[in-house]
Amino acid sequence: MNKLLTLIAMGAFATAVKAQAPAIPTAQAFGKVDKADLEMKACDFEKDANAEVLFDKGEVYFDTQYQIIFERHKRIKIFNDNGKDEANIRLTFYSVNHAEFITGLQAETINLENGVATPIKVDKKQIFTQVVDKNRSAIVFSFPNVKPGSIIEFKYRHTIASLVDFPDWYFQGDLPTRYSELNTNIPDILTYKNLVNLHYPLVVDKMSGSNTHTQAMANIPSVKEEPYMDAVTDNSERILFQLLSIRGTFMHSFSDTWTKVGENVVKWEDFGEQLNRKLIGEETIVAKAKTFKTDDEKIAYIFNEVKNTMKWDEDYDKTTNDGTVKAWEKKTGNSTEVNLILYHLLQKSGLKVYPMMVSTRKHGRINPAYPNSYQFNSTVAYIPVDSAKYYVLDATNKYNLYNQVPYNFLNSFGFLINKADNAYEMTFLQNTNPVRQVVLINAEIKPDGKMAGSADISSFAYNRINVVRNYKTDGEKKYIENLRDNNNNLKISSLKIEDIDIDTLPVRQNINFNLDLTGSDDNYIYFNSNLFTDLNKNPFLSENRTTDINFGYRDNYAITGIFKLPAGYKVDALPKSVSMATPDNSIVFKRMIAEQDGQIMVRLNIDHKKSIYFKEEYSDFHEFCKKMYEMLNEQIVLKKS
Predict the structure, then answer these.
(1) Which residues of 340-352 are buried (b: 16+ CB within 10 A; e: fewer)?
(2) Cβ neighbours of residue 241 under 8 Å, at least 6 residues apart?
(3) How far apart (Å, rounded) are the C-alpha atoms in residues 452 and 429?
């Protein structure tokens, strides 16, 4: 009897649980919209979202000619004016040789007017095809009459001739997504490898027959922008596809290894065929380069020559557009054109140099387990110096240094292309040396609650690049305003910058300033010794973190402040000297503070021993930063005697 009652109770519990389980959202037919969605005011699971993807459904299959057919249907809800940018759509595809094309585009805005769903179709005359470059085109359009409460939806058919270019699928993006579904139907003769980045559960994961696979996720939060995060795509729930084999004999080679990728790349007309093309007037540059005694002098000369001659057209691309010869004639080119010109001149000057394909930080990290050239969006010149040292040169940025890996490519892989030796390999690009910022404050505290003094700031490496770029781009007046950091109590009376044009030296700034010490009164003066640094505000206030932290490089701060006390005042409260570190000793913070002979001397040192912190480490990292920034902002209190 007891056993029977137990079974009945278990069955009742299971039924109750099943009844309470929320229904899985689904996609709908084009134009069929629930009134509840039109009336919806906010995303159920992300209340502050400006817009929400109601569903995003993709179907991938093959036609009789074994072209890839990708059909997509996407619907978005707009909650407020900040979400209206979602109504601007851009669909990019490879149009060269009719390799890809988009057809069957339908798009409409649906508003609730007087309680009735009212659709407004996108006028076909307002759908434009733009030429991106010689390889790519884009279909561009905007939805009409979009306002808070609108729903926008579109669908299209994307035909892809190459079996290698199977479309990736992102379940997650910069908007919360209620439902995302991918259906794939792959013939038996094709074998694709899946590279997955999935942390949320699949609400649907089923096979229909032997070839059709349906995978879906529901109620997926957006990938939030967080300080020092990598690209949104690096942190999204996704599935990538890589062609491994075709059963039969009509195709023999696939880019399933990096060697095969390299062998294909060097055959490309717009990459490999550009490497040795003669440039007009190159003899003059090469001849002068050969007059320098050391390789570093040659490299610095050619690097600066290309930086000063070529204008980057703001386009990142892994291939050339017009080609190196024409780009050199026009003095303008995309990132690969500029840097293949640099590579060519370095190589002609007798230097050991290789082209290297890379990906910018915004484009996304390179996955070395996924041999595919589509991961790259730029090219640099790579020079091995010795077994432990190398240079990575990018001449698109006028402020880059030849002997320093550009920030844009740090902590990711580059693909080295050695055509002569048929050698192709992945190389991890990093900077393991600490990047220093040295600040010396010498100031006097006045009895009227003011501070007057000078600051000497020496900025090295990436810090140097930031100072030089900002100063030359903004001009002195705006640069000084930025130094003030919206502090109306700070007045800068003069700024002197030294060694701004000598790449091998740190840039030095000498600043004379006056500061009104707020909060001071007739009996007390309050001031903080942490001046002219970027360490005033803690960027890691959030209790939780969903992405890894990538600083790019190791920061090292050395800050010294000497403050002369006003006559008639004594120290009332002085922060304590302290030394602390993260549990793994990857960040060490030290503060030494002392009063002597009418002066207070403060020394701060912060040393980062690594540049990447995984999200799993965030709890300890967050707690450390909280304490450190509290200490950095502690006040020194003086009291009238």
Answers:
(1) bbbbbbbbbbebe
(2) 166, 167, 168, 192, 193, 194, 195
(3) 44
Q: What is the mean pLDDT of residues 550-576?
A: 97
- Token pair for residue 532? 């002219």
Give the pLDDT confidence score for residue 2 in this predicted structure. 46
Cα–Cα dist 149/147, whole Å: 6
Within-domain flag for 285: yes
Q: Which tokens is 406 given? A: 């550009």
Q: Are strands 68-78 and 51-62 parallel, antiparallel or unpaired?
A: antiparallel
Same domain, 558 and 498: yes
Q: Is the dihedral of CA 530, 535, 537, 542 positive or negative?
A: negative
% helix, strand, coil for the chain, step of 5:
20, 40, 40
* pLDDT tens-digit map of 280-318: 999 999 999 999 999 999 999 999 999 999 999 999 999
- Relative to beta strand 177-185, strand 51-62 is parallel
- Name the domain boundary from 246, 266, 299: 246
Separation between Cα atoms, residue 6 and residue 425, nearest integer Å:
63
What the block records as the tokens of 625 is 């930063």
Token duo for residue 73? 């249907």
Contacts with 378 (C-beta within 8 Å, 6 or more apart), sequence order:
316, 317, 318, 335, 336, 339, 357, 358, 359, 360, 363, 394
The range of the structural domain enclosing residue 209 comes to 35-246
Nearest-angstrom CA–CA distance, 372 and 16: 49
